[in-house]
Design a protein that fits this description.
It is a single chain. The protein has two domains: 32-173, no CATH class; 195-410, no CATH class. It has 13 helices and 14 strands. It has helices at residues 32-35, 70-96, 107-124, 131-138, 168-174, 177-192, 197-209, 218-229, 237-258, 291-295, 322-326, 342-345, 358-372, and strands at 57-58, 66-67, 152-154, 162-164, 270-280, 301-309, 316-317, 330-335, 351-355, 380-383, 391-394, 399-402, 406-410, 421-422. The strands form five sheets. Strands 5-6-8-7 form a four-stranded mixed β-sheet, with no helix packed on it. The chain has a four-stranded mixed β-sheet with strand order 9-13-10-14, sandwiched between helices. This is MYND-type domain-containing protein.
Length: 428
Amino acid sequence: MQSLFWHGPNLNPIDDEDPTTGVIKYEGEYLPKYYNQFFNPNICHVCKSVIDHGKLLQCEECHIISYCDENHKNIHHTQHNSICKLIKELVVKLVNEKKISKSYAFLGDWIRDKKMFKTEIKRKISRKLMPYENQMFMSIKSCLICHGRVGLSACENCYSVNYCTRHSLAFKDTHDKFICKKFTLSLNVNIAALTDRPTELIRDFIAFLDKKPRLLDTFRLIMTFLWSSRTQLNWSIADYVLSDYLSGPLTIYYGITRTDSPHIIDKQSNFNIHIICTNSINNNSLAAWEVLLHLFHDVDTLVITIIGQGIIPNEYKYEICELCKRFQLSLNLKPTWFQTVKAIETQYCPLFLTSPNLFKGQDTIRKIRIILNKNINPDLELKNEFHSHAPSKDYETDYINYSNKYLIIYKDLSKVNNICKRYPGYYK
């Protein structure tokens, strides 16, 4: 039986420090399955360390990815080399054809061209882009003000935003402390997710869940968890990662309780969930899905089929807790892909969709109507009380969002529903 935990070095002990005031140090192994989980152009891709801007070694071919020294550059060379050559060739071609500009008056134009650049690479490369490579193209360094790419420096607090020499003063006015702290926390969450500390917390949380606390929302639930196990109630970085991991299964639980459809789960010993991920997924987070076995007591076997990026194509048998073993419960995690939402229409089962903001939620509803070729409305739209509290970068806006902020529910895609129920506060 393969475990989803990895038992490398833990996060350095900064649980009592403010996770928004400085970038933490990664102390795990330098292996592709860890350092390729996310991308940031202003830190070493391999060890995730932040160093003085002038000492960071940028790849001299593609000028997108950076390293702290030649050793770490060589560690990543074999993985980066093939795409690096394509990037260099494509940049020359696009510049000669004047399809990319030196700077942009509008952020939307710059994001459009980054997407175009990524699409061209996808056409030329003989494999699928890895999740961090998708991030790489959407994270090409540019000035926050003019979106130019010459003479750039990084914010020395969050290492997530850049500015050019000409706009150093304007940058200080635009990039305020509030958003800087959010970006710092986002980077720290990404680094912390490479370690085993958050997955260890999941085991403690599941034991806490068996005490039957009130399930009000993510924030109050984790605060109650902290109150039961610590004297210090300030959130550590691992707690933010925990909120992100728990958001998925708790959103499913919340959605089922709000659909007024108890038949979905009642008296079913086997329960199947398909998760369609538009972004990459951290394998460590899969451990959190055992939560559903502790919330749905009639379920003996929970089968989760994960459809998305970053999943190794094997079937995982997750090592569940001793209580679940005692009652012979099981959790299977099966990665696969569905071609279209059309396949879900024939299953006569509920579809839960989440989005980080209202715009993306409404765009998803529009796409489902196009795919199914009918004017179908969701049965329910509501703000999700169990969204993640870990900020993440939105590559469409270069701003911050929170996973699973809004929840959209279709009870049955085979039926046309003309009435959508929106709960108060949905548009806030």
